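Appendix B. Worked example

We walk through a single record from start to finish. Start with the input: the chain for NPHN protein, Rhinopomastus cyanomelas, length 141.
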Amino acid sequence: ELEAGSVTQPVPVLVPDGSDWAELQCRAQGVPGVQLYWEHWGQPLHPDDTRFQEKQWREGPWTSSLLRVATIGQERSRLRHQFQHSDSDEFRSQWQFQYLNWAQSEHWEQNRTLGTFVCVAQSPLGTARRHLQLRLAGTGL
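Next comes the structure step. The output line below is what the pipeline stores for this chain.
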């Protein structure tokens, strides 16, 4: 059992302007006990990726996880730069290309810290997921 959260819609987590990191929280309980881990872009987070730091602990029947996501400031700077130059024809054609090939953009690959994160609670009896969508406040992204 995951603590309250929408099963059908990701829970939005807004990162205020000026923040270089965000924290995502997840809590679950189960019998037998649950293990928590995080996924992003359909893959479990790699333990050596310095953009993500996880702390996990138990409180009675609950297992809690706090995921700190770094380099948010780099994402915000990149988006501001793109939008400031949105009037040029060169930018428009580049933006369309990046939009159509979003996952293939080299720069996007380096800083993929936005989007939907999934907290996965797993026990021998099954798996439950909670989706949290990390967005920059004031940008719609």
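Two observations about the output. Residues 72-84 form the longest helix (13 residues). Residues 54 and 67 are 4 Å apart (CA to CA).
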